[in-house]
Amino acid sequence: MSVRKCRWCGVAFKNAGGPGRPREFCKRSHRQRLYEAERAAAKLGLGSDDVLVSKRELDALRDRIYVLEAAVEDVRSDLAGSHDLQDYADAYVHLLEGALNVVGARIEPRAIGS
Question: Could you tell me the residue ranges of all domains in the chain?
Answer without folding.
Answer: 2-112
